[in-house]
Fold Tc1-like transposase DDE domain-containing protein.
Amino acid sequence: MSWAQANRRKTAWEWDAILLSDECYIHLNGTAGHVWVTRTVNEVYNEACLVPAFKQLPVRVMVWSCIAHDWKGPLVILNYPGGKGGGMSAERYQKQVLRTHVVKAMKDLCHHCARKIKIQYQQDSAFCHTAESTIKWLENYKIPLVPHRACSPNVSPIEPVWHELKKHICA
């Protein structure tokens, strides 16, 4: 409710000038979801009704991108080691996303907008985004933040983009 109260006076132009960003995992071999197989009782081991299972670990890629009202940023494959102790750290996020892509995306979106309006940046509340060093980095580069809605991990407008991307890659 406080998020809605704080943002209720934003104009349509102000909403159009918010750069929404997010990271996403994409599974490249197999699926991350359930596979449904339709068969008769007699087809239990029929090759046409089986889905191969691989012994190797699933290949996951972490990507980042950003969007605004009628603008899209690059799709970036991140160098992400994953696994135990290999999470997206604040330092990795600053180096691979903020320094390399966000500053340029902010400039590109500014040129794209017809009006002179301040571009703002929104990221979710993942640890690498809320770390003190990340907040200081954003302040040093004078990148204004739009707070993410509290307790709302999957309500960002970029989430449907990830869904479509995964659907096409896993097809």
Notes: The chain is about 35% helix and 15% strand. The chain has a mean pLDDT of 83.
